[in-house]
Amino acid sequence: MVLADLTAGAVADAERRAQSRPLAQVESDALARPAAKDALSFLAPADRVKIIAEVKRASPSRGPLASIPDPALQASLYETGGASAISVLTEERRFGGSLADLEAVTARVSVPVLRKDFIATRYQVLEARSAGADLVLLIVAGLDRSVLEELFAFITELGMTPLVETHSADELEVAIDLGAPLIGVNARDLTTLELDRDLFGRLSDRIPDTAVKIAESAVLSPEDVTHYRSAGADVVLIGEALVTGDPVATLTRFLDAGSIALPGRKKTP
Ligand SMILES: O=C(O)c1ccccc1NCC(=O)[C@H](O)[C@H](O)COP(=O)(O)O
């Protein structure tokens, strides 16, 4: 199963890193960092869609996408284009990412940065904070409930914001029970890699208005952004469409396409 393999590989890679950088060291590096940015204020619902733009070199579903020799430059172009946050895929084996990418990006941009990886241990969370991350992804389908709750609390304790990712009504219930402030619905089934761009629209009404509603994956055109926005997305997370061509121009077109006010949608506290 893709998700289980990705998670096992990410945990094994973190265990390897822990041999040269023990937990006590990464913890002290994490605690020495300036406070994480308040991601919720950057991603709060507004009269237009917001975008989390992803630094993504490759993926299991699409293979190599772009070499991205300078991830910090890529991220700064995203910021120039109007992204409200940056996602950095740090998984090494199938996405070609690294913690060094994350560290380079957090050093360059002023918007919050998400560590996008297959997080299953406190060590990985501490690595995220020590590299300057403001947000950490937790995938409901990849974690036992007790681990999910523990990591959610730990991320919050470290001053970061968890983005809780779901792909079904049942997983959404878990995210809501946790009190997740940012709830993502990924169009991609991480066990089969199939895409369902309509899933967000089927689930979005169930997400409480107190949470920021994030549609993830499968945006290739401005029409896809309009589709998600019209279905109630506060934020859209986009990878593949931004890593080639001119990301500033693409983001401008995407933001224009999501410039639609959602009647009745109030700002989160
Ligand atoms: O992208 C994949 O193939 C993939 C496979 C297995 C687990 C996760 C995967 N991607 C992570 C993501 O969720 C996306 O990178 C992100 O939502 C952006 O998606 P896209 O705009 O479709 O590149």
TrEMBL record:
Residues 11-250 form the Indole-3-glycerol phosphate synthase domain. Keywords: Amino-acid biosynthesis, Aromatic amino acid biosynthesis, Decarboxylase, Lyase, Tryptophan biosynthesis. It comes from Microbacterium saperdae. PANTHER family: INDOLE-3-GLYCEROL-PHOSPHATE SYNTHASE, TRYPTOPHAN BIOSYNTHESIS PROTEIN. Coiled coil: none annotated. Pfam families: IGPS. Belongs to the TrpC family. NCBIfam families: PRK00278.1-1. It catalyses: 1-(2-carboxyphenylamino)-1-deoxy-D-ribulose 5-phosphate + H(+) = (1S,2R)-1-C-(indol-3-yl)glycerol 3-phosphate + CO2 + H2O. InterPro entries: Aldolase_TIM, Indole-3-glycerol_P_synth, Indole-3-glycerol_P_synth_dom, Indole-3-GlycerolPSynthase_CS, RibuloseP-bd_barrel. It is an enzyme of class 4 (lyase). Signal peptide: none annotated. One of its GO terms (molecular function) is phosphoribosylanthranilate isomerase activity. This is indole-3-glycerol-phosphate synthase. Its EC number is 4.1.1.48. Pathway: Amino-acid biosynthesis; L-tryptophan biosynthesis; L-tryptophan from chorismate: step 4/5. GO terms for biological process: L-tryptophan biosynthetic process.
